[in-house]
Task: inverse folding
């Protein structure tokens, strides 16, 4: 078996850590070639000490000296690079076979596209990249001749259900499960603090996606992601709240069969599925103990308390640049909330105001996407300033 070279974009994050945990279980199979972080040079250097990649990249150029010094102090041969272009360099580096796209937000789009164009196997966690540029990304994967494997647990579940169907075609509905987040049973959204919003009941994740899970925007982004990845329209994608997070998603077929994928809520499972595909490899996830589960329950999402889910469906149906506006406004609003500069309940309002004010034609290039993203960020920042507590 030849050793497979891996780049992790966003190595210092939650998906980065889970990915490295799986990779470390298979030293004969995988070799870490490139690691990137935003600004956490010391954390990146620690990972370099463990995995000794050929290159390490900090997106923030002001942290390059710190990274160089940290690598030197550890006497590592790893080359240090910095900046946006260096992120793309890591994504297309010659010894890299698979790229784990695990940067949070639209910031991950350019290197993800670069990896796809270069024909790398793309293991995609960075859902915002698909939301902003689904068609461009799929075109890039086709042009590069590589493959795309979803890492998001719901999309991994759907990929697994479609692959396991045993018959060709006939999938008629995707059913995405949602945990419901920490406020599933909370009536009043006043006074919610960032610490409360990031305390997810089932998953340990980065701060941004944790807030998205609390507003259900995460599920909205995942509906758009599923629409592009599996070619399903908004009317053929449903969301069901399933608080135990044991069923990760389902596919309904023409004959009425429904296939589901189950497992403990541990991202190492979908990461191992994507890394090993088409083989199954050990992930380190605990075994699912059905006897420990009192019940698996399901309920509809509450559209009035969680308007972000509806906004995402609206953006998907509107087409053009609406999904980019939705994503950018949400990134700005969530960052403001985490800075205690916007009340939790106003996140949806900022997104809705941006979607109503801005309309763009569908982007035809990365530059188009970035221009729409920038315009939406400006609009959302002004809306946040008007809404600040
Ligand atoms: P995180 O915040 O824990 O980590 C984000 C990583 O991206 C870090 O390494 C950070 O240094 C890097 N980064 C942040 N901003 C950057 C920028 N501007 N330029 C370059 N690098 C930057 O986030 P996470 O929870 O690991 O999520 C990463 C992605 O995976 C997100 O798109 C998220 O939606 C998706 N995802 C995460 C989970 C999960 O369980 N954490 C599950 C499914 C999907
Ligand atoms: Mg998910």
Result:
């Amino acid at each position: 078996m030849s050793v497979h070279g891996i780049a992790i974009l966003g190595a210092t994050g939650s998906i980065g850590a889970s990915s490295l945990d799986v990779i470390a279980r298979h030293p004969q199979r995988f070799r870490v070639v490139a690691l990137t972080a935003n600004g956490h040079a010391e954390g990146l250097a620690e990972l370099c000490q463990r995995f000794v990649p050929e290159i390490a990249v900090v997106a923030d150029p002001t942290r390059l000296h710190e990274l160089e010094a940290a690598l030197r102090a550890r006497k590592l041969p790893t080359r240090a690079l910095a900046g946006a272009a260096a992120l793309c360099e890591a994504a297309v580096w010659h010894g890299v076979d698979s790229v784990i796209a695990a940067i949070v937000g639209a910031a991950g789009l350019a290197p993800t596209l670069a990896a796809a164009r270069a024909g790398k196997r793309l293991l995609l966690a960075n859902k915002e990249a698909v939301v902003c540029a689904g068609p461009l990304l799929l075109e890039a994967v086709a042009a590069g001749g590589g493959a795309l494997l979803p890492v998001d647990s719901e999309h991994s579940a759907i990929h697994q259900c479609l692959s396991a169907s045993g018959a060709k075609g006939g999938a008629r509905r995707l059913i995405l499960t949602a945990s419901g987040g920490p406020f599933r049973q909370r009536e009043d959204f006043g006074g919610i603090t960032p610490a409360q919003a990031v305390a997810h009941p089932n998953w340990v994740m980065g701060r941004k996606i944790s807030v998205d899970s609390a507003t259900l925007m995460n599920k909205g982004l995942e509906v758009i992601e599923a629409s592009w990845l599996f070619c399903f329209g908004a009317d053929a994608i449903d969301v069901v709240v399933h608080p135990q997070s044991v069923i990760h998603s389902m596919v309904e077929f023409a004959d009425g069969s429904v296939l589901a994928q189950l497992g403990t809520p541990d991202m190492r499972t979908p990461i191992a599925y994507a890394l090993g595909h088409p083989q199954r490899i050990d992930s380190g996830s605990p075994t699912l103990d059905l006897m420990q589960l009192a019940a698996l329950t399901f309920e509809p999402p509450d559209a009035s308390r969680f308007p972000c889910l509806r906004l995402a469906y609206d953006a998907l149906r509107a087409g053009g640049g609406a999904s980019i506006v939705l994503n950018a406004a949400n990134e700005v609003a969530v960052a403001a909330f985490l800075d205690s500069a916007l009340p939790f309940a106003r996140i949806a309002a900022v997104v809705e105001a941006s979607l109503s004010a801005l309309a763009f034609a569908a982007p035809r290039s990365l530059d188009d996407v970035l221009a729409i993203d920038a315009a939406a960020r400006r609009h959302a920042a002004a809306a946040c300033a008007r809404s600040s507590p």
